[in-house]
Design a protein that fits this description.
homodimer; alpha+beta; 60s Ribosomal Protein L30, Chain: A; Phosphoribosyl-aminoimidazole Synthetase, Chain A, domain 2; 2 domains; four-stranded mixed β-sheet; 9 helices; 12 strands; 26% strand; EC 2.7.4.16 (chains A, B)
Chain lengths: 300, 300
């Protein structure tokens, strides 16, 4: 049963766990009130799917609670176009919804399945594991700073940066491929520094990151200094790339698996024994950052 | 795994379906901005559990997305007191959450389980079935009109009316008891007239209601005229009682089952062949109401 009855009824296959993630996006906090509704529809689902990706789950169902100041049919149509294009891409069925009047906000809850005993947790990292990330980091933060007028991005890179900011793509295939390879994983929503700290705390060890290894896009390199690029990569939010740890022994398996799904990835550091924390190295020497992590209680 | 990792992982027992319901409550639309936070915490969960009750499901898990204009620790503490008191009563575990800054709103998603092939749908009513409701109707609407200053409620009934308005109790036990007895069911959130119309449309037949049979509380009878009482019962929202249909053959079974869980219920009409609609009778003659249904796009 889908929307219409009081509840959606879902059949979870035997020997699988249900993975559930819920996120709220509020106008003026998580996105600009005048954001293109198609991009917003895409992003509202993408950030939730990213949580499933971080777990290695197979996306199955989604529910959508939309709060709107007024019934604007054209806006709703465009929002749904963005939302359902992504839903169809991953074969995710809408199984419930709610539409209410009020200040613009969107709550999405995605549900996926995982074979029992598989899920990628934050607590599984082992001493000696390599630390990896998919894609390039900081591009969404670069896009935000561009919109705010703080950074000028060369014309050739504008479309790329806007796309990374408005159209994050959840790393579903990479997450699934990492199920049997990674020891821990999460998605980068609040900046590498703060997010990786979750893995260090949950796993009880420290992480060492080599700044030179952090993958920066050509757009980033052409728009800001290296130091500014690292700052955006480490503390900027909304990248929705995966960060994960893999034992050296599985390195070959990792390369095959991610090559198979066409996802670029980079080794940026290693897990060590020690007090849970993230340590930054530049040319072998400790490096101190100014800001810490993306704060959702800070207005964009 | 509970909150903390990217997703909650839930184990759904074999041969059961997962029932999922999501609702958003927005300040100034679904509740007054100055509503007692403990009552609000209770109500936010209660209206969702009511959807599970309407399906006959066993509540298991809940996720909570809270959007607040500022971090007010005392408010959050009181909200959680109301929310978790009800969650513990039904042994519902929190398995995810999100807290963001923005205009006050609350999205709750509850998950329950149902033996395969059981769920109470809206489409199962049969010609000749009796139409029943639990409890008394219209009391929450009476409470709203009292707060708005439109109706004066005698001193002796004020606490009762306030409680029905702020502390709706989901009919979980009744819903479970009705699983093998009722042919259709839903919960009354928008008023009997509009809600019962869903059953008539889904089941493809008409409903005949005898106004004299509609259960009105002593508070209602002492506060307004009979006609006003019916109006509030038929078009007022927020009652969260169950409305369901039962074949005459199962009447004895129904009485035993609901007596067992201590829930009062009343037979208010019957299903007939005909164009899907709700027909009102007063002393055997057609009766016309003014307003239609509770509109969430109408400010309280």
């Amino acid at each position: 049963m889908g929307p219409g009855d009081d509840c959606a009824l879902l059949q979870v296959p035997p020997n699988t766990l249900l993975a559930v993630s819920t996120d709220t996006l509020v106008s003026g906090v998580h996105f600009f009130a005048d954001m293109d509704p198609t991009a917003l529809g895409h992003k509202a689902l993408a950030v939730n799917l990213s949580d499933l990706a971080a777990m290695g789950a197979d996306p199955c169902w989604v529910s959508l609670a939309l709060t709107l100041p007024e019934v604007d049919e054209e806006w709703i149509k465009q929002f749904c176009a963005g939302f359902f294009e992504l839903a169809e891409y991953y074969n995710v069925a809408l199984v419930g919804g709610d539409m209410t009047k009020g200040p613009l906000s969107i709550t999405v809850s995605v549900k996926g399945t995982l074979p029992e005993g598989k899920g990628l947790k934050r607590s599984g990292a082992q001493v000696g594991d390599g630390i990896y990330v998919t894609g390039t980091l900081g591009d969404a933060a670069l896009g935000l700073q561009k919109v705010l007028g703080n950074i000028t991005v060369p014309e050739a890179h504008k479309a790329f940066v806007r796309n990374k900011f408005e159209h994050p793509h959840p790393r579903i295939l990479a997450g699934q491929a990492l199920r049997d390879i990674a020891t821990s994983a999460l998605d980068l929503s609040d900046g590498l520094m703060g997010d990786l700290a979750h893995i260090t705390r949950a796993s009880g060890m420290r992480a060492q990151i080599e700044l030179e290894q952090i993958p920066l896009s050509a757009a980033m390199q052409d728009s800001v200094s290296k130091e500014q690029g690292w700052e955006l990569a480490l503390t900027g939010g909304d990248d929705y790339e995966l960060c994960f740890t893999v034992p050296e022994l599985h390195r070959g398996q990792l390369e095959m698996a991610l090559a198979h799904c066409g996802v670029k990835f980079t080794r940026i550091g290693r897990m060590f024994t020690g007090i849970p924390d993230v340590e930054l190295l530049l040319e072998g020497h400790p490096y101190q950052l100014q800001s810490q992590s993306w704060d959702h209680f800070r207005q964009p």
